[in-house]
Specification:
13 helices; 2 domains; disordered N terminus; D-Maltodextrin-Binding Protein, domain 2
Amino acid sequence: MGAWLLAAQAIAATTVVIYPRAESATDSQVVYDYELLRLALEATVATHGPYELRPSATSMNQSRTAGEIALGSGLVNIFARSTTQEWEQRLLPIRIPIDKGLISYRVFLIRADMQPRFAAVQTLDELRAFSVGSFVTWADTRILREGGFKVVTGESYEGLFRMLVASRFDFFSRGVDEAYREYDERHDQLPEMKVEDALLLHFPTTRFFFVQRSDEGKHLADRIEAGLNRMLKDGSFDAHFLRYKGALIERAHLKSRRVFHIDNPFLSPETQATRIARPEIWYDPLKGR
């Protein structure tokens, strides 16, 4: 069989990409993530061939998703999540920040009657006096604990919102784009909840796509990375980012907030290096770019 025919067959082979079906019907974060993934795959059709992108047959949490990917079960072969050094060792990261690092900037979901107490906060130690809710497996949990916060964990994403209004903890730390979207999606059911409007917490982090550490995973990662880089070059990545997140960033009026910083000791040296080597792919909402 001629080399040209083998090459043609390789290009024609369909890349099957399966991402985890969301556990929560109201979690629209996945829409941004996996639409970005679709656009990256679409950008590489000419060079890598056709693709099929679909959610997993059943919903699964991050822990199970990671296990299925590492095992190579075929139930799912990619997912998006906040990165840590441990995750980057266990799975193969596609080291282009899905959210351009926006998740580094945190506003808070709180109970409305707590706003005066948060508005009075002037120092990081005063902020640490409040308890914060987080999901048990999220990278945030360890970062916040290392940062000196009392963290109350939950085992259900939707349950965390109910825990907040039930006074199980004082605030829920959310990405700038997440908080207002989650507030809008749940305000009718949880009218006691609001987005705190005076403070901003920053710690360096981001979200990556992760695949299996294998030849097959590397092949998929190379295709997606190529697609994301093409989108960064032609401006379609930024257009997608602003289409989904621009209005939410504006709504957060970040420049008028008091900003507090904590370290992230779980960010890998490789990801730290990416922040320095490619600053153009990391968004700074305080600078508006």
